[in-house]
Design a protein that fits this description.
There is one protein chain. The chain has 119 residues and is of the alpha+beta class. The chain is built from two helices and eight strands, in the order βαββββαβββ. The protein has an eight-stranded mixed sheet with strand order 2-3-4-1-5-8-7-6. Strand 3 and strand 4 form a beta hairpin. The longest helix has 10 residues. It is globular. InterPro entries: Glyas_Bleomycin-R_OHBP_Dase (IPR029068), Glyas_Fos-R_dOase_dom (IPR004360), VOC_core (IPR037523). It holds the Pfam family Glyoxalase. This is Glyoxalase/bleomycin resistance/dioxygenase family protein.
Length: 119
């Protein structure tokens, strides 16, 4: 089951300018990682002070859409439970991420894409 919205990933053509803008809006840069090893695309986590949600900036032009991240308890177990559901399209099956834990990416029947994160 979905537990909570973790972050919202948005596309930006100019990552550095966006970081400066969102810092001016009160967000704090919390982390930065390569999205795909060997490629120039990055993910940058921008925190909302005391809150737990993040705004994630990304500069990969092939992924220029919003990606809501949803926490699930166990990504692989969630996938196993729902992998045969015909209304769900699995864009990426569970994989380890560079921040620890696991990730899977699904498209819901309404066309919305969700990034599932957890153990």
């Amino acid at each position: 089951m979905f537990k909570k919205l973790q972050c919202l990933a948005i596309y930006t053509k100019d990552l550095e300018s966006s970081i400066i803008f969102y810092e001016k809006m009160g967000l704090v840069k919390k982390w930065e990682v390569e999205q795909i090893p060997g490629k120039p695309w990055k993910l940058v986590g921008m925190g909302f002070g005391e809150g737990h949600a993040e705004l994630v900036l990304k500069n990969n032009p092939e992924l220029n859409f919003i990606e809501p991240e949803i926490i699930v308890e166990d990504v692989s177990a969630f996938y196993e439970q729902w992998k045969d559901e015909p209304s769900i399209q699995w864009i990426r099956t569970p994989f380890s991420n560079s921040l620890g834990g696991h990730v899977a990416i699904m498209e819901a029947p309404d066309g919305n894409v969700f990034v599932l994160i957890g153990k």
